[in-house]
Write a structure and sequence with these properties.
This protein has eleven helices and eight strands. The strands form three sheets. It has a four-stranded antiparallel β-sheet. It has a two-stranded antiparallel ribbon with strand order 4-5. A two-stranded antiparallel ribbon has the order 6-7. The two termini are 57 Å apart.
Amino acid sequence: MDAPASLPPSAAPPRHRWWNDEHFRGILYQVLLLAGVTGLGWFLVSNTLANLGARHIATGFGFLDREAAFGISEHVIDYTPTDSYFRALLVGLLNTVQVSLIGIVLATLLGVVIGIARLSSNWLVARLATVYVEALRNVPLLLQLFLWYALITEGLPRAREALNLFDAVFLSNRGLRIPALVWDGRAIAVVAAAVVGVIGSWMLARWSRRRMERTGHYFPVLRGSLGLIFGLPLLVFLVGGASLDFDVPHLAGFNFAGGSNLTPELAALLIGLTVYTAAFIAEIVRGGILAVSWGQSEAAMALGLSRMQVLRLVVLPQSLRVIIPPLTSQYLNLTKNSTLAVAIGYPDLVSVANTAINQTGQAVEGVSIIMGVYLAIGLALSLLMNWYNKRIALRGGGR
């Protein structure tokens, strides 16, 4: 067999050019993008520092150690105007965390109820839930906050004509006043017993689930949990002497003194964030439930489970895998929407930081603190929800 003749020069394959290499181009584009972002950042920082220097504005975070010299109407920890800016910002941060955590819990509970109600076989319940979702989702949150604040401050009576319940609970346009527990050794023991009861109820629920998976027998977790959460503190209370002291509110001038106060600002913010976010959570819950095959419910009812047991033991656990990812976004949205508190006078982190900026002129540092704090809160919340999402995810049989 004759050897193949060599290819003529015109038929030779084209030479490989380095600029045609896909891998090389990918690296080149990333290097150029990084250089562009770095250059833009350097330009912005240098330009900002030059402008601050031209206006003789000091830079840095040294102002945090100076006296704040302004009051904060609500604070979780002790605070006076003589404290530093750092403590003032800490008070604002704790106020934000307080509103966010309480709002997340309340919005989740309300959203689950509304989401299930939208799937109810009762026509009236389903339509009322639909009206709630469609109305609340399509009205801006800021307007809702204004509405709730106006209803509380203008719709409730003045302090002297406050609604009185047992001469201990007072509701007026100054807020809701309730007796406050005076902390001593017995009160701390009762609260510790309640915490132990909550942990015990969680462990009881885990044991009951494993027992049911192993034997098929259902254990009444709800009754056992209520007994632990309420019975154990009651037992400690009775054993410890059955005596607790309360600071009962009383009218002093044009306002109340003593007790604990839920201010109109905090109440309006919590109500607004809760009902607004719950409307979105309701749709997420409804979609998650519909994502579970109807055959799962039929099989569970064929085994003799009631509708409530089917929902709680079969449908909701499976729908969580669909619900958790978008639910995380709603939790983040609620936390970020809490910045609207400044519109109704609640002293959250943004409100306190704005006051500090106005007094010190440290606008760049103040805004940086706000951005850093909300970034940290968002990342922490995302990590927690992602951990839970992985924990409930389906796993393959082989290992």
